[in-house]
Amino acid sequence: MMEKRRILAVGAHAGDMEISCGAVLIKEAQQGKEVHLLHLSRGGRGHFRKSPEEYGQQKEEEARECAQRMGAHVHFLEYMDAEVPDSEEARLAVTEVIREVKPDVVIAHWRSSLHRDHAVAHRVTDDAILWAALEGIGNGPVWRKVRRTLFTENWEDPEGFNPYLYVDATDFREAWRDAVQAYELFRGGVSSFDYLGYYDGLGKVRGAQVGAGWAQAFGVFPWQQRQKIQSLTG
Fold first, then answer.
1. pLDDT at residue 194 tops 60
2. 15, 44, 82, 127: most buried, per Cβ within 10 A?
3. Is residue 38 within 8 Å of residue 1, measured between CB atoms?
4. Over the stretch 96-149, which tens digit does the pLDDT of each residue have?
5. Which pLDDT does position 234 carry in this prediction?
6. Residues 23 and 152: beta-carbon distance below 8 Å
7. Domains of the chain
8. CA 200 → CA 7, 78, 179, distances in Å?
């Protein structure tokens, strides 16, 4: 029997991965992949009326509900919003989750961001993928089978991001809209920024670019854009 394929999406805050690539994750889950979400922080400092502790607890509950709607597993680290550390400790924590989940694909934030937590999450995740494959670092058996690293298209991570891989998620758009609205943030109750409208509209644009009704796009490292072919015509 073939081993089940697994995907791990690592976000700085609860909601980051769901809103930016959740439709693709739902598609993968419904096609039999095992999908995991890892939130480095719950993102509790984003509410204008609630304390970080109260909103953080709310976001954890919302993240669990969203993951259930998506058909995904969810994991949490205990870092505070705006304080995700660029540290060995954080790298080891993500390393251990990678070894536990054993993903074939890891999805993360792009390397440049308006939000310091996103940029830190990128560096921490990138190093953790390497550390997970090395003996003598952290706990648990090594995992060397991460075959692909992808980066989501997030409105706060625009500098240098170029969409490279497009996934047709037309048939999963409505399931995604339903799932992410487990978060008050994406129902319009926290921020004046129209997250759902933005990412839904972006999906239309990305779909139009590749002849699909609706799509979500991912970036890759520049070195991953190299493709070997035998001929220009075949």
1. yes
2. 15
3. no
4. 999 999 999 999 999 999 999 999 999 999 999 999 999 999 999 999 999 999
5. 65
6. no
7. 6-222 (3.40.50.10320)
8. 23, 30, 13
